Amino acid sequence: MNDLGQDLELRLVRYFTVVAAHQHFGRAAAELHVAQPALSRQIQRLEKYLGTRLLDRTPQGARLTPAGQTFLPRARALLGAAREAELAVREPALTERITIGYVEDLVITAAVRELRRRHPDARITTRHLSCHDVGALSDRRVDALIARAPLPFAAGDVTATPLYEEARMLVVPRGHPLAGRASVTAEELAGEEVAPCAFETPEWASYRVLGADVPPIESYDDKLELVASGQAIAVLPVGDRRSSLRPDLVTVPIEGAPPSQVVLASREDDTNPMIGHLRLAAEAALSPAPAA
């Protein structure tokens, strides 16, 4: 039974949406900067208020119950409406504000610097997103997102503007048969591509060793370790230089592979003028990395 003498707390609703996005209390607690036991208690408070269980706790994390699946889009809409109400009554000088999300290997410093130069009085913040932050744009934690296409959103939900394209490269361990090649073709890279994370740069191709497929691993560093150990190969945009930090990995240009496209995405119905300003600044300041 819920307490009809209490109003629904937006803070609890936000906590729920973050746990739902991560499907893991520990990762959600880290993003929210709260202790995991405290977060669990707050979710229980929300469930008690609503009179139903929203999340099932599992050994792997948490999953939405049918009631949670019903509540999630309404919770996000509630948070969005609250934010719009807040923005509508702020002083005009404070209405020029934007939170820019960016993911994985992308560096957006030049675009942010250019945007601040053009709009010195605007409130501009950035937020690095992990592959578990798929809902950051739809639940309005960020106003715009700079990421690599394709994006995990339904058609009509977002507007995406291409910024630039980058060629792709192969990452293999030293001693691999392809490591000494000047280039390889896309046809030579047979294997099943896996996308373990919606916002993750690499497209992973399974590489069989002793008849075993590559196991699913979430950490980017663990995946590089998998490549270095000879159990996988990776296909990355040439702008992703993180593999170059390891001396036991080699990059090889790929011929005939479709380029990786970097886009600026925003919600279809968002009228924030700073999004258009960001688009112009990003188009002027960001450019593809030179081929390796």
For the structure shown, list the relevant keywords.
292 residues, alpha+beta, 6-stranded mixed beta sheet, 5-stranded mixed beta sheet, 8 helices, 13 strands, 33% helix, 24% strand, disordered N terminus
Task: Describe the 3D structure.
A hairpin with a 2-residue loop joins strand 1 (55-58) and strand 2. The chain is built from eight helices and 13 strands. The protein starts with 9 loop residues before the first helix and ends in a 7-residue tail after the last helix. 30% of the residues are buried. By secondary structure, it is α+β, with helices and mostly antiparallel strands. The strands form three sheets. It has a six-stranded mixed β-sheet with strand order 8-12-7-11-10-9, covered by helices on one side. The longest helix is centred in the first third of the chain and has 24 residues, at 66-89. Residues 1-5 and 192-212 have low confidence and may be disordered.
